[in-house]
Design brief:
Chains A, B: Keywords: DNA-binding, Transcription, Transcription regulation. The structure is a homodimer of 319-residue chains. With 319 residues, chain A is an alpha/beta fold. Chain A folds into three domains: 85 residues, Multidrug-efflux Transporter Regulator, Chain: A, Domain 2; 81 residues, Methionine synthase domain (Methyltransferase, Methionine Synthase (B12-binding Domains), Chain A, domain 1, Orthogonal Bundle), CATH 1.10.1240.10; 122 residues, Rossmann fold (3-Layer(aba) Sandwich), CATH 3.40.50.280. Chain A has 14 helices and seven strands. The radius of gyration of chain A is 21 Å and the shape is globular. The N terminus of chain A is likely disordered. At the A-B interface, loops of A face loops of B. Chain B binds a DNA duplex (30 and 30 nucleotides) through helix 2 and helix 11.
Chain lengths: 319, 319
Amino acid sequence: MNPNPFERHQDIAAVARDTGLGKDTLRVWERRYGFPAPLRDEAGERLYPNEQVMRLRLVKRLIDQGFRPGTLLALDAAALQQRLDALAGKVGAGATATGDGGARPAGNAGVEMAERLVPLLRERAAESLRAALAQQLAREGLRGFVMDTVPAMNRRIGEAWTAGEIEVFEEHLYTELLQNQLRAAIHALPPAPGRPRVLLTTLKGEEHQLGLLMAEALLAAEGADCISLGPQTPVVDIVIAVARTAPQIVALSFSAAYSWRKARDGLLELRAALPSDVELWAGGGVIAARGAQIRGIVCFGRIDEVPGAVAEWRGRQAG
Amino acid sequence: MNPNPFERHQDIAAVARDTGLGKDTLRVWERRYGFPAPLRDEAGERLYPNEQVMRLRLVKRLIDQGFRPGTLLALDAAALQQRLDALAGKVGAGATATGDGGARPAGNAGVEMAERLVPLLRERAAESLRAALAQQLAREGLRGFVMDTVPAMNRRIGEAWTAGEIEVFEEHLYTELLQNQLRAAIHALPPAPGRPRVLLTTLKGEEHQLGLLMAEALLAAEGADCISLGPQTPVVDIVIAVARTAPQIVALSFSAAYSWRKARDGLLELRAALPSDVELWAGGGVIAARGAQIRGIVCFGRIDEVPGAVAEWRGRQAG
DNA sequence: ATGTCATTTTGTCCTGGACAAAAGTAGAAT
DNA sequence: ATTCTACTTTTGTCCAGGACAAAATGACAT
């Protein structure tokens, strides 16, 4: 649309907004690794060519999957893309930072829906998008929607952002609308204050809510009695909440970028602080990636293991 | 609750998050004006005492109302608070940045609702808050809700943030829930694709959506046919949208922090670009503050002038 | 009131050094 | 074979203080 190469250059603030990397980080990478290597304007201020911004987006995406900058900044775009593809193709990789739910081969419905997203976002057609999500959810039912369509959509959104097809703003809009749909659907379920009662949250430092919400939706769809504390609850507050609401299960969600050490330490600390008859369930990116087995904690490798786990829990209680 | 003064110190990143000011800005203020004057830890890093953070919050609030740093940073907390009070007391001050809708004396219902907000936010009781908003809206009706309760709530939230009673995160949560309620209410109105047809948006650089949404709600409640483009639409895109949707009125919303020059220039540019039979309405912070009169543009001093203006428009069309 | 131009004010950018926090690694211990 | 501890490397953020672009103001003419 605008082939003028000069129009493509972005200043450091724009790149920081666009990629989610800090300005300081961009500058120190340049100093240390020689990339990015922006041009300069007359005043000596950095101007990032579009091509470098694309590459930065690939880097950011891989970092969010747990890779480290030092291993990535020397690679060219093709090599980076290759790693991303490898990651996407890996079966059983588990839910990623954006909650792709593991490399479950998505059904046709999910993929078709995912393909419709990007055009709708670019048109700023918030209302149409909302309607489309609602319709798809109604058609598939909450369970199928969360296990098939949502992961497919998240994958597509991630790709689109990496490719520069959509902007951060539009990605936020998508997340917003999807979360509203999920919340509404959970809220609209027939009120069956059944068992198990599950307390959901994420640990301090984990901002991603989507995985949490997906878990809540699945649990609620199975007839569990869900109480969500929202994200970023300190361990102390979780303990207090457990004392007050007496759940049988506490479920924690983690993104792929969350540090494994912090996750494990947090889980063990919580395990020690909670009554031993309260089960502790953990799922999401890091947990799945490590195929983790922690004593006293139930770890999920894929989001679609949730319904089965609920059934199993019920069996255990009945027996 | 925690009287230990050492616990109260925050590092520069926390203060930046908390106040919404940039780290660079905090440092350059210190250099230029001598305030803030943070302590230092062993490593020489800034530690801001709580008292200074409070004062920074007051400063930020006044800047958002259009004041300039140079005039504020020499003042102590009491003097800053005084200016804020003066502002709040000023009748006809118009909708502020947070959309307080002018100093309309809020009805009892509005004030009572506003008082319930802070406790609910601090408990992270998102669901209760959502329910409370929905109930209040149902009780008052959309029009009364937008003209009385929402301004009262916004004022209370602003105060609470300034006083450090709530955090940014909680303020966002409030805005989010309120916007959802308004959108749902607009959407739920009996489908009366009446007249006038109104296109709503904000100019590029204006991020505040709440005022826009309040205007849309009022217009929709009056039976107008509203089309919202969302915030930050460049003039060119507005012109294109007008050509496609053929509205009789284009409505623009501005916060108090928006530059008066940019607002006026943008409005005039738009006026020149649009067919002369399309009316141009403008309202919100800056517009109201200047008691502005611009030729060819209808300026609103207070949000509750909107219903009357619609009635008047209809009279003009009928006659 | 509105436009123009010079003068301030204000926020952001720059460099390059430093270091705290996080993550990886290795060896010992359960 | 995992878990713990101590050591090393990586990585992001902080600092100082100079510079300057962008925005706002003020003066003056229309």
